[in-house]
Structure formats: structure tokens, C-alpha cells
């Protein structure tokens, strides 16, 4: 994983906690690579207290490899292999998402619901539109 990151000219990563169904809380992490320290610092500044931090791939290599090599932890790289991931996620978690939306937004059974997912600062977010203004939700909260 580190070789793949550095081959693309990245020298820094923001390593942050990442929650997902099936992964024990506190044992999932998201790594977002950056070519320059300034961009990484801007990302890290968006995180809360102990959510994550910026690491230098040269000087912090031991911390990163220890996390990769420990089978208790799951480490995800902040990229997607498939362009259709959005549709697959909606299909897989549709029931949970609709229940969450109905509990947190004023929607009726006739309303058309549009869900767009995106990664923002290493966090999976869902932007939901249903007969009115957009609402942004944490995707994990919607599907857990």
C-alpha cells in the first residue's frame, strides 16, 4: 500500500478513524494521500480532536507499517476502484438509508429521493434531496 501511495508522488497521508458495518469501532482507519504537506494540513484541520492526524511517509513509516501489519485493524485507502460504487452502495443499504431519511427529513411516500455519496476529508457523506433543500448526512450513521 505504501509503495502504491509513494509511486504517485505522495509524501504525506492523513490517517483518521473510519467506522463501517462489520468493523469493530476504533479498529477501522482511512488513509488519504497528499503530495504536499499544506494540503494534508488543510485536511487534518477539518478533523476533530482524536479523529486523525497528518503523517509524513518518510519519518512516520513505522507507525503506518505497524498498523498495516496488525490483523486487528482495517486500513482503507481513500480511493474507489469502481466508478459505479455509488449505485452499489445505495442498492446494498437502500432499506437503512430510506428509514434514516424518513426519520430525519420531512418526506412523504410520493416524494422522489435523490442520494449522492462522496468522500469529504476522508468521511463518507450522503447528500440527500427530497422535495426541498439538500441535507448532508454521515453515511455510516445512515446504514449502521
Structure notes:
The chain is α+β, with helices and mostly antiparallel strands and 144 residues long. It folds into 2 domains: 2-77, no CATH class; 85-143, no CATH class. It contains 5 helices and 7 strands, in the order H-E-E-H-E-H-E-H-E-E-E-H. The protein has helices at 2-7, 37-44, 61-69, 85-104, 139-143; strands at 12-17, 28-34, 52-56, 74-77, 114-120, 123-129, 135-138. The strands form 2 sheets. A 4-stranded mixed beta sheet has the order 3-1-2-4, sandwiched between helices. A 3-stranded antiparallel beta sheet has the order 5-6-7. A hairpin with a 2-residue loop joins strand 5 (114-120) and strand 6 (123-129). The longest helix has 20 residues, at 85-104. The protein is elongated and about 55 Å long.
Give a nutshell description of this structure.
This protein is an alpha+beta fold.
Strand content: 25-35%
Main sheet properties: 4 strands, mixed
Helix segment count? Answer: 5
Percent helix range = 25-40%
Spans where pLDDT lies below 50 across 5 or more residues: none
Q: SSE order in H/E notation?
A: HEEHEHEHEEEH
The radius of gyration is 17 Å
Q: How would you state the average pLDDT, rounded?
A: 92
Query: CA-to-CA gap between the ends?
Result: 28 Å
Which overall shape is indicated by the principal axes computed on the Cα atoms?
Answer: elongated
The structure class reads alpha+beta
User: Number of folding domains?
Assistant: 2
Strand order of the largest sheet: 3-1-2-4
